[in-house]
């Protein structure tokens, strides 16, 4: 069986690798370079925190489990760590979230501001609200690095990566059945199945096939700092800044309060005013004990993939047999498990029960 995967982010690469492991002939098409889209600007906090429905919580926990397996098989890498996460907000929100997490059995410990340095010595207790939550089982991953890691194995398995393919679309016959793909720069490729994992472009690609998928994608930005000797080891999620460690002794920093200030030109290129970057790094400085201000190494801005109802869209399209879709905002946490389960569906022809709540067809009933 020949498969074409459209999308060079972490979900596309995970799907391609799992399909190649199953012995299929796989070509991955990406518009530009691997990790050049949303995966290259993701905070990539590995977690199942939040008041999620049970089926989504279980999928996220399975996603974390697969990263733990990856970490076990690659000890000592600097692009995947499980050093925990800290969250704080107003007191009522913190207490409510802690209660939800504890009822679910999620590792969630309430702490007072004065005790934060028992968790991480580089956080300033004065910056913490009255209470915070420590989730010791959480982690982070650098998606460009894990994509490169998976791509190396994919190529060893005779998978083919086609970069700079330009806009790539599925080809269908008169009945809507998938016949292959057509890329703007690399031409047509006949195949048996197609898997779309093209992030925020998913709705646009499907619209070109006459299929409507409600899209809630938003603009976002991720800043990377210069190396810092006093960076925290935990992921931090706070009212004004979120940050995590990053390879090279740097920090990845983002939040959502400035999204309306992200500017996009007619070619789709996104920029952020210098004043926003300055303020975001100042907010990050406020959390840390070190007196040396963080310095910017660079940033990336663009669209973050978000389905309209906030939950993953996974599985075969009823309107285009043989065409599968993987569209979600939680790509970092879910990438490995999505690749595994969608590969299983494609190779066996059977629906996996864990993906049942996330089928594309659910939007027809809303």
Automatic annotation (TrEMBL):
InterPro entries: FAD-dep_OxRdtase (IPR006076), FAD/NAD-bd_sf (IPR036188). The lineage of its organism: Bacteria, Pseudomonadati, Pseudomonadota, Gammaproteobacteria, Enterobacterales. GO terms for cellular component: cytoplasm. Gene3D superfamilies: D-Amino Acid Oxidase, subunit A, domain 2 (3.30.9.10), FAD/NAD(P)-binding domain (3.50.50.60). One of its GO terms (molecular function) is oxidoreductase activity. PANTHER family: GLYCINE OXIDASE (PTHR13847:SF289), SARCOSINE DEHYDROGENASE-RELATED (PTHR13847). The keyword Oxidoreductase applies. Keywords: Oxidoreductase. It comes from the Bacteria. This is FAD-dependent oxidoreductase. Transmembrane segments: none annotated. It comes from Acerihabitans arboris. The keyword Membrane does not apply. Residues 3-342 form the FAD dependent oxidoreductase domain.
């Amino acid at each position: 069986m020949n498969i074409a995967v459209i999308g060079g982010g972490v979900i596309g690469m995970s799907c391609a690798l799992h399909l190649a492991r199953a012995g299929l002939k796989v070509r991955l098409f990406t518009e530009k370079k691997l990790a050049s889209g949303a995966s290259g600007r993701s905070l990539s906090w590995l977690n199942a925190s939040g008041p999620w429905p049970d089926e989504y919580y279980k999928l996220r926990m399975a996603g974390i489990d697969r990263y733990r397996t990856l970490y076990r098989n690659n000890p000592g890498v600097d692009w995947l760590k499980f050093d925990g996460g800290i969250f704080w907000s107003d007191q009522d929100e913190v207490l409510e979230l802690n209660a939800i997490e504890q009822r679910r059995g999620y590792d969630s410990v309430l702490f007072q501001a004065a005790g934060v340095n028992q968790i991480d010595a580089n956080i300033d207790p004065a910056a913490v609200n009255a209470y915070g939550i420590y989730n010791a089982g959480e982690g982070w991953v650098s998606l460009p690095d894990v994509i490169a890691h998976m791509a190396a194995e994919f190529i060893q398995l005779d998978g083919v990566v086609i970069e700079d393919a330009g806009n790539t679309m599925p080809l269908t016959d008169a009945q809507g059945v998938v016949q292959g793909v057509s890329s703007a720069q690399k031409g047509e490729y006949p195949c048996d199945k197609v898997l779309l994992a093209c992030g925020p472009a998913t709705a646009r690609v499907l619209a070109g096939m006459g299929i409507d998928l409600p899209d809630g994608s938003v603009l976002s930005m991720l800043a990377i700092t210069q190396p810092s000797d006093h960076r925290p080891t935990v992921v931090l999620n706070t009212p004004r800044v979120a940050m995590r460690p990053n390879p090279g002794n740097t920090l990845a920093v983002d939040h959502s309060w400035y999204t309306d200030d992200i500017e996009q030109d007619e070619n789709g290129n996104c920029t952020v005013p210098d004043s926003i970057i300055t303020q975001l790094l100042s907010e990050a400085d406020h959390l840390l004990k070190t007196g040396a201000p963080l310095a910017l190494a660079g940033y990336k801005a663009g669209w973050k993939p978000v389905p309209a109802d906030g939950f993953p869209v996974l599985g075969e399209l009823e309107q285009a047999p043989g065409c599968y879709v993987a569209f979600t905002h939680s790509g970092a946490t879910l990438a490995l498990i999505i690749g595994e389960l969608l590969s299983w569906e494609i190779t066996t022809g059977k629906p996996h029960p864990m993906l049942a709540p996330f089928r594309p067809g659910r939007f027809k009933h809303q």
